[in-house]
Amino acid sequence: MLRRVGVILITALLTFLLLQGRTSAQSASNLQADIFQLRSQVNQLRAQVAQLSRQGASPTRPISGRVPRSPTDPTDAQIVDRLATLAIEAKERLNALEARVTRLEKR
User: Fold this and answer.
1) Which residues contact 17 (CB under 8 A, 6 or more apart)?
2) What gap in Å lies between CA 89 and CA 78, rounded to an integer?
3) Which of 31, 48, 80, 89 is most buried, judging by how many CB atoms fall within 10 Å of its CB?
4) Cα–chain-centroid distance for residue 99?
5) What pLDDT is recorded for position 57?
6) What pLDDT, in 10s, does the model give residues 9-60?
7) How far is CA 97 from CA 50, 70, 105, 106, in A?
8) Which residues are within 8 A (CB) of 38 and not within 5 positions of it... i.e. 6 or more apart?
9) What are phi and psi of 32, to 5 degrees?
10) Rounded to two decimals, what is the model's pTM?
11) Is the pLDDT of residue 1 over 70?
């Protein structure tokens, strides 16, 4: 089962790389780097599969979708307000930079 997942992931990765539109004019060093990277990823996947198969006998923890909040954590509304403030500040900075670039270009 885990081996199938690894093979599927490797196949998907190779297919993605092939469909990216790589040209035949790509240099040999780039191809060698890609091959080395793929081999490294295959080795990492093999190690993960081996680790998972070793852990197969050990009990697993259920993965929770949400982490319980502590009383000091901000609420969703506070988080949205803070994000809105940050977005406004970022927009103001962007406007200031655009004005500065315009002034510099006029010189």
Assistant:
1) 34, 38
2) 16
3) 48
4) 34
5) 57
6) 777 766 766 656 554 445 666 777 778 888 888 888 888 888 888 877 555 5
7) 52, 39, 12, 14
8) 13, 14, 17
9) -65, -40
10) 0.34
11) no
